């Protein structure tokens, strides 16, 4: 070790050695903290004695040998030169016999010891008569008591003899030898030096011996900050830095001049703990444990020490380089200290800390942190504290920690009711990141007696089972739960009422089976809910929307609720319910505004399940505003955030949005993959299943399979009527079915359905109203059609659904063209193309491009329909008709093949037959025929 800033100490040593020539004895106590350079200074003194022909007798005490009587004296005797002390071997032999004899207090043994020490003392005095001697003892604080007693006697006898006694010791470890220290320091020839930590310039001098001087000067302050001036730690940091520099690959990855502590530094910290006082090490252990929750102020109580003792030991740790005035000098110090704690001590410290913090009423998270570190929760209050702590840290988005708290509580609790509460809370917590993992916790509770559950717990269980298609288990629990729900005390519960409303809106088939118990009297539902329960507010609003048109004040009121609610695990459901209600109320743009804000927060806080749920809602919003690409992207994000198992039956809405968007964009390959992917049949018993069935019907329409589409839409309508949710803004199945009927050339039936739907609507649903008018217009002749389309256009402009607006503009352009209003037709067509392009509805874009401009008659329009071979179209097979329609719309052979899921060569074969049967030779003629057919 480099000896720097030790000039004063060397001067004293030189003076004392020089005095030996004058037959003057000396006594030097070298005091210092652990690893302060005491041993190096002592060794330097021994080397100087050797060079001066002074007999050096050396010994190093050890904590492991403290219980060996005369152990230290035995080491000194081993260095006695036999030539100058012929009686030494016999004395050593007697000393070993004494060390090996039984530990008794007999008079014979006491007499033997007295004679032995007298003989050894005489040997030492005899040496001094022949030569100057140096007695050098390192780590005197670890010496056995008998050896200390002998050294004190020897020190008293060296005042006027050529002997220098140099003892090195740690300040913190001498408290057990106060009498010895006092007697020693009273001697007139005693000198005392304290080795202080190195100053910053001193650290710089050490570094300059190993590094480039400029670099040493630059890094000296950091080395001093990390080492506290401890020579051992400075040397360890140098070794770490050299190790980094020696590995070029590692060096490239680290910033220039990296000074981070490494293995040598950590090992040096461990050495400080092992070589220092046990009390100081215990305090370091305690501070490392308490630091985790900022509870260092409890150190005295944790270790049963006085505050004065803690202050004294902190001073020792500061001097040793482990602590600064504000705490551990570096996280690596605390890590090394924690690794040094024996496992049993580690657990005990954490458990005692938890007990103390709980007794002081400290926040549950702090208490739980120590229970978790101990891996035990033995107290009766432990499970309750761990649950509260989980809620606390979950509010800070520390999901992993909350899960760890609850898993400990689940493992340790012996109370059955507490176990149920913990498991359900654990399911809610892990749902954030892994809904499928949450399902496993729910499944583990299916055999539980509902009598053990309170209303909120039972509701969580039933919702979890239903969302994952476990209808049988849910019904069994619902049946038993329903009996409790009918009690007067429960009837007034906001939780219960919002649950029954939620069930009526989401699983209406089940509600019908439990209608008497649910007691949802639709006629008695208030128009405005006077409650502060966010979930009850939201479910009531959704229920109102699904049963009829909400009042404008209801919409305003729910938007105010959205503004007040902060996104959390508790508010996600009411927020999602409110957004869904706004969508069904044809307030998609209002819903988009709120959902965008919430989704941004979910991304910022990185809560996967929140992102999934809100992305699914955003996909439906985008679909209803005509933003097809956004709809598909949000749906894909929702499905990637939450696995299919995690979604359960709730997978219907995101899959429906993805299917509908892909179909409208003309990506029938993706749409086909979605449709052919197996879906749980239980989704069709949910509200979300209606959207998927509706999207599947539109896919069939895109494939020109109107009969299959009609079956889907009619099935959808049947369910809605049976469930009492026949609201067009939920799923406009009538206009969808009417579109299929128009394809089947059944306009009267189509008109009847459109008129039925129109009767169910009002101006408060502009999007659905506009869509219905457009469909109704398609069943009438030109004049009536144009008038209805003008009305449709006004409603859709208010609704701001680009896709439906583009479709209405396209129909209006054609109607105006047929009425001879070519300028109006051109304007409408231009707007239709613009809107269709913005929403990326490629099939509609191609059709609009192929139609040309209705305001400017082209070659196709100059051919009178009578001159076209329209009657020959009936000669085509169904497959040929499908190919003809797609090609006439402007699709290439490859695009037509992809939409029909056939090969390109099959399309080419059909085209050959089509050209032959229709007696045409090019696509342009085919488009003319198709236009005439329309």
Kindly describe this structure.
There is one protein chain. With 934 residues, the chain is mainly α. The protein has a five-stranded parallel sheet, sandwiched between helices. β6 and β7 form a beta hairpin. α17 packs antiparallel against α18, α31 packs antiparallel against α32 and α34 packs antiparallel against α36.
- Write down how many β-strands occur, each being a DSSP E stretch of 2 or more residues: 7
- Look at the helices and sheets and give the structural class: mainly alpha
Coarse morphology: elongated
The side-by-side strand order for the widest beta sheet comes to: 2-3-4-1-5
Q: Tell me roughly what share of residues is in helical segments.
A: 55-70%
β content, as a range?
A: under 5%
- Count of discrete alpha- or pi-helical segments spanning 4 or more residues: 51
Amino- and carboxy-terminal Cα gap: 99 Å
| Unreliable segments of 5+ consecutive residues | 248-257, 485-492, 520-530, 853-871
| Major sheet summary line | 5 strands, parallel
Mean pLDDT: 87
Report the radius of gyration as a whole number of Å. Answer: 45 Å
